[in-house]
Specification:
23% of the residues lie in helices and 42% in strands. The protein has helices spanning 14-32, 36-41, 59-70, and strands at residues 43-51, 54-57, 75-87, 93-104, 113-127, 130-145.
């Protein structure tokens, strides 16, 4: 059970709107700084994450995927914007945000940069005063550059996976 904050009339406090946006930014920064402890804390223990390549359940699996995708890069930058926050029943929040994830691997044949842009749709719940992601759905709108930048060792081109 969440310790809900949405008003009975469907309103959300300014503080909760700001906290939701801050959580999305914290996830992006944790990914780019390889701060796996902070990233872990941003998700519920049983969180689900759906993306074009599949589905993960549990924050440990979510963080492991991010590590596999990002540790082999020289740099990444996840930009988050156009954030909406709405009540989602039982005190939870639904957020929709656009992302642009830039991935850099120097010396990669075909070019050093691969950019993926799309949308995150998150369900946030608050327990003990802390908002976390319970469910994330990621979709891609466009991609540009060299998909080999995100390729796993042994692949000839990237799967297009963005953490």
């Amino acid at each position: 059970m969440t310790d809900g904050s949405c008003g009975g009339d469907g309103t959300i406090s300014t503080a909760d709107q700001a906290a939701a946006a801050a959580l999305l930014a914290r996830i992006a920064i944790a990914q780019d700084e390889h701060d796996w402890e902070t990233l872990t804390d941003c998700f519920e223990p049983d969180a689900a994450y759906e993306h074009p390549g599949g589905r993960m359940t549990g924050r440990d699996a979510i963080v492991a995927r991010s590590r596999r995708a990002l540790d082999r890069l020289d740099a990444s930058q996840h930009l988050i914007g156009t954030i909406t926050v709405t009540p989602d029943g039982d005190g939870s929040l639904a957020t929709t945000s656009y992302f642009q994830a830039q991935h850099v691997r120097h010396g990669c044949p075909g070019g050093d940069l691969y950019t993926i842009a799309g949308t995150y749709r998150d369900q946030l719940i608050r327990r003990n005063g802390t908002w976390r992601v319970a469910h994330r759905a990621q979709s891609y709108t466009w991609r540009q550059g060299n998909p080999a930048v995100t390729a796993r060792p042994g692949e000839t081109s990237g799967s297009g996976a963005s953490a």
